[in-house]
Write a structure and sequence with these properties.
mainly alpha; three-stranded antiparallel β-sheet; two-stranded antiparallel sheet; 15 helices; about 60% helix; globular; binds zinc ion
Amino acid sequence: MSMADFYMWLPRITTLLFIGAFGASVGSLTNVLVYRLPRGLGVVTPASRCPSCETKLTWRENIPIFGWLILRGRCRFCQSKISPEYPIVEALMAMLFMGFYALWYVVPADVPFWGSIKPEWALTDEGMAFAYQTWPAFAILLALVASLVAMTIVDAKTYTIPLVLAWVPLGLGILGHTGHALWFELHHGAMTQTAPGLWITPDRTRWISEIGWQWTITTPAGDGWRWIGAALGGVVGLIVANALVAFGLIRRSFADYDEWEAKALAERQVETPGDAAKVVEGACKTSKQGENDESAADLWIQYPHARREMVKELAFLAPVVGLAIVGAWVLNPAGGPLAQTGVAPLWLTVLSGTLLGAFAGGGVVWAVRILGSLAFGKEAMGLGDVHLMAAVGACLGWIDPVLAFFGAAFVGVAWALLGALLGGKLRRAMPYGPFLAIATLMVVLGKPWIEVLLGRLTGASGPLHLP
Ligand SMILES: [Zn+2]
């Protein structure tokens, strides 16, 4: 390695290590969220402590991964074991963050296999990474990955997804992409396309994107006013629907579920007095994980009014769909009352892209939830899954969550086969959230092969171009 090579690689390696340390810290935060959110505890206070004797951890013991190693997995004070889950989650997050950074910005595009995984917007230009230009999109991706890991762990343990874990990447995706687009156009001027996938601003700043697309995620074309109108109309519809719920004009679905569950559990207690203590523990959701939660889970599919509740959810969705259609008509360039022609500002195009992504991701899960519940009479997929995929759509655009939704079914089948082969702990029923999360990561990392596959399936002359 020559001196010049060394100076070229040094900043990248330093950044990679920094990203790894950052990932481990996010893993540490994930551990805190996974432990505290389902228990309704605060996130910032109280300070981290031993779950058995409540001795506070010192700053050294709080260091991700190494803290656990220093303690050798036992509390310094009471010697009780500290779960290896903590350092494992921290190491996993560090590896995911470093892996994405390496694939996106360090591995050159001409390296076989590994170089082809990165999206076009992370391509390097004459050895210069575009990282400085596209880091907001990358940061949004990392935030989504971290949330997906956290949602997976909580969902697998408790069969619920704390919605705040979905709202954070949802908000970041919408505001982050839009803010980035606004900043970009203010600083560099409007982009014009000079070659497929290559855009140039008046100050000659280059912006590389997937062929046919203008941003790092799917967006309507700059003159796609119908889609922009639909996105904005849908948001107004969502506000209206939530207002109707707040004023009691639409009833919240599954509002009587807790009441029904308590009654059903009480009846069970009478039926099987021996198991009574176990069942009650499961109901409180404070017990250790495992059998108890499964009994709560199989109770949940016995709730008899799932069909009736779907009517309430359809009523909630009616203003969203209705106003999206109205929005598309109002801005419609061909004769809408507020007909728009010409190119929309980039921030509005990108904002619409994030919103349409969220609607598509949440919508596909919600549609299957409603159809499945109506068909089988028991609740199919949770509203947590709807929020999860809405977050994926806001961060990555509409294509990824739709692909991931269908891919999740295959992940579920693979999991069931693995359980049948290996038996034991893997055999327990899994909620759908972890499958959705794993499928999302597979879509993000498997884009080049998905593009080839979809190209063949649709009869295109080559791979499709997906951002
Ligand atoms: Zn202790």
